[in-house]
Amino acid sequence: MLGEFKKFIARGNVVDMAVGIVVGAAFTAIVTSMVSDLLNPILGLFAGGLDFAEYYINLGDGEYENLAAAKEAGAPVLAYGNFINAVIKFVIVAFVVFLMVRGINKAKENFERKQQDPSNTEVPTPKDIQLLTEIRDLLQQQKS
Question: How far apart are CA 135 and CA 117, in angstroms?
Answer without folding.
Answer: 30
